[in-house]
Amino acid sequence: MNSASALKILVIDDNRVRVSIIEAGLRDAGYDQVTLVNDVAGIARRIQELEPDVIIIDLENPNRDMLEDMFQLSRAVKRPIAMFVDRSDSASIEAAVDAGVSAYVVDGLRKERVKPILDMAISRFNAFSRMERELEEARSELENRKLIERAKGILMKSRGLSEDGAYALLRKTAMNQNRKIAEIAQSLITAAGLLGPGGEE
Amino acid sequence: MSVVERVTAGFLPLLDSAVLVTAREKGFAASEGIELVLIRENSWASIRDRLAVGHFDVAHVLAPMPIAFNLGLAPLAARTVVPMALGLGGNAITVSLDLWRSMRERGASESFEPASTGAALHDVIEDRARGDGERLRFAVVHPHSGHNYELRYWLAACGINPDTDVNIVIVPPPLMADALTSGRIDGYCVGEPWNTAAIAKGGGRIATIKAAIWKSSPEKVLGVSAAWAELHPQTLSALLRAVYRAAQWCADTANREELSALLAQPAYIGAPAEWLLPALSGRIATGDGSVISAPDFFLTYAKAATFPWKSHALWFYSQMVRWGQVNPSRANDAIAHETYRPDLYRAALKSLGAALPTANSKVEGALTRETPVGSAGASLILGPDGFFDGRVFDPDKLADYLVAQTAAR
Are A102 and B44 an interchain contact pair (Cβ–Cβ within 8 Å)? Predict the structure, then answer.
C-alpha cells in the first residue's frame, strides 16, 4: 500500500454540500476510495465493513463522543483508531480545530501519509465557511436593501417626500443616532406596523 | 475596575451550565472586571479539543474529564486543573415505560430509592436472561462521566455486572429521550433537562436519581487550562469569585423563574423553561403522573457545592481503575490527586468571607445527616454524603477500596 489512492477515507458530515466539496478535493488529489456518510445511524457497522484508514468528521457533530467511545472500545473496528495527534505538529492540530474539522486515523499510519488528507480537509472546510459567510452577507445585504426600499416607501407616503428625500432622511437619522441605515429602516417599518393602517400598505 | 479581562468559556446546553450563564448574564463576571464569553458546543470532544488548542480558557466539563485528560486517557487533551465545582447532583436514571412496568411488577420503589429499584432491575435482567436473552441497553453521555460511574455503581451494588449483564452505549444528551421512545435504548443516565424531556414527551419514568445513589456528589466542574491558569492567576481568582456569587444567586428561590427563563433561551439550553423547573425546585415529575420531592436533587451553592474536594477526584479515579479505564499506580494516584485544586479556590474566595471547609478531602459517606462543620468564614453545613449501599470511601485508604471493589466485580 504505497500509493495515496490505496488509503480508505470515510467522511462523516451532515452538511451534504460541504461533504461533497471535500470528496471532490480528495478525488482530485488522487484518493479514490472515499466514502461519505451523512447520518451516523448504523455507523458502527459501516466502519466495520469499510475498515477506513482515516475518518474525517465535522467538529460540530454531536455524535463525536459516541464515535470516540466506539474507537476506544474498538469492538467495531479491527484496529484501534486514534485521533491524529502528533504533538510536534500542534500547528496542524490548531488549524484543524480552527477550521472545525477533526480526523481519526488507524494507529500506526505514518504522519506524512495523513497530513495531506488533513490539510485538504482543512482547506476545504475553510473554503466552505468563507462561502457560507459570503452567502450570508449577500443575503443580509439583499434583506437590508428591501428594508430600506420599504422604509422609503413609508416616508414618501406619510411625509410626501421624494424617493431621494426619503433616503436622505433615513441616512441623516442613521448618522445622528450612529446606527446603520438598515436598522433605522427596520425601526421605522416596525413603528409603522404598530401604528396600524395608514402607516404602510 | 479599569482593566477588563476577557475569559472564553465553552459549555454544553445543560442545566448545570447555570452558574456560568448567570455569572455572565447577571453581571457577576463584569463586576469582577471580566468579560465572560460563553461558547456553546455540541460534544465533550469539542470542548476538550478547543480547550487543548487554546480557544477556551475554561470550560463547563464533566467532573472526571480533567482527571482523564491528565492521565492521558483522551486524545488531544491539554493539562487541565479544577479550581471549582459547578454544583452537586442533577442527574437521573430514566427507563422506558415498558422496563418500568417490569420493574414495578418486581417491587421497584416509586420514590427513586436506588436499592429497591436496582433489586427490581436485577430481577428483570435475570428473567430476561432465562428468556430470549437480548441484553438491556443503557446510555450514558461519556465514558469519563459521573453518569457512567454512578450508573455502573448502582448496577454493580445491586448485583448486576455492567460489562456483561447490560450494554452501555454513548448517546448525546439531547438525543436520549428520542433514543428511549424509539426503543433503541431501555434506559439512560443523563443530566437535566434531558430526563424531564422524556417525561414531558410521555416516554419514560425516572427510576432513581444521582442525589440518591451518592448523596452530595459532584457532577460538573470548571475545567481550566493549566497553562492559562499559570499565566492569569488574578483573572482566574476573579472568575472564581464571579462564579461563586452566581452560584449563590442561582440557589435563591426568589430567582428561580428568572433563572429558568434565562437558561431556556436558544443561546443557552434552548429548551422550554418548564423543563428546567423540576430540577431547580427539587419537585421531580416522575413520568407516571406523580411528583416526588427531592430537595437536594441539584445544588449550586449549599453544602459547599462549588468546593473541589480531592476526595471527589480520587473517587472518580477509583472508578476509572475499577472499570478498566486506567491502571492504578503511584504516579496515577498522584495525577488524580493533583487535578483538583482547592488551594486555588481558597485563595480566590478568602476575601469574600465565604464558607471554606477546613479540609481538602473528606471521607465520602462519613456524614449520615446534615452536619455543621468547622469552616473559615461563614458557617457551613455538609452532608449527608453517603453512597446508597452504605460503603464508605476513605481517600486515605484508596488501595483497600480498589481491592474491595475489584473483588466485588
Answer: no
Do β-strands B91-95 and B220-225 pair in parallel, antiparallel, or remain unpaired?
unpaired
d(CA B159, CA B385): 22
The DSSP annotation for B215-239 comes to TT-B-EEEEEEHHHHHH-HHHHHHH
- Residues pairing with B58 in the sheet: B9, B224
Chain B partners of A68 at a C-beta cutoff of 8 Å?
45, 75
pLDDT tens track for A81-124: 777 656 557 788 889 999 999 889 888 888 788 888 989 999 99
From CA A142, how far away is CA B147, in angstroms rounded? 48
Pairing of strands A54-58, A9-12: parallel
CB A129 within 8 A of CB A99: yes
Ordered mean pLDDT values, 10 residues apiece, chain B (409 residues): 85 98 98 97 96 96 98 90 98 98 97 98 94 90 98 98 96 96 96 97 96 98 98 98 98 98 96 97 96 97 98 98 95 98 97 92 96 85 96 96 79
Nearest residue, CB atoms, A102 vs list B44, B49, B142? B49
Cβ of B143 and A69 within 8 Å? yes
Interatomic CA distance for residues B94 and B71, integer angstroms: 31
Q: Which residue, among B3, B91, B26, has the nearest Cα to B252 in the 3D structure?
A: B26
Q: What is the three-class DSSP state of B342?
A: helix
Total Cβ atoms within 10 A of residue B254: 8
Query: ∠B118-B95-B191 over CA atoms, to 5°?
Result: 95
What is the value of pTM for the model shown?
A: 0.89
Sign, Cα dihedral of B355, B358, B362, B368: negative
Peptide bond between residue B384 and the one before it cis (omega within 30 degrees of 0)? yes
Q: Look-up: residue for cell 441484553? A: B135
Q: Give the Cβ contact number of residue B358 at 10 Å.
A: 9
B46/A64 Cβ within 8 A: yes
Between chains, do B170 and A69 touch, taking CB under 8 Å as contact? yes
B43–A64 C-beta distance less than 8 A: yes
* Cβ pair A69:B75 closer than 8 A: no
Which of A60, A65, A93 comes nearest B170 by C-beta? A65
Three-state SS at A59:
coil
Query: Which residues of chain A does B143 touch, with a Cβ-Cβ cutoff of 8 Å?
Result: 69, 72
* B43 contacts in chain A (CB < 8 Å): 61-65
Angle between helices A111-159 and A90-99 (to 10 degrees): 30
| B114 lies within 8 A of chain A by CB | no
Picking from A152, A143, A102, the residue whose alpha carbon sits closest to that of residue A122 is A102
Asked if residue B80 lies in contact with residue B181, where contact means CB atoms within 8 angstroms, the answer is: no
Q: Does B141 touch chain A (CB under 8 A)?
A: yes
Nearest-Cα residue of chain A relative to residue B143: A69
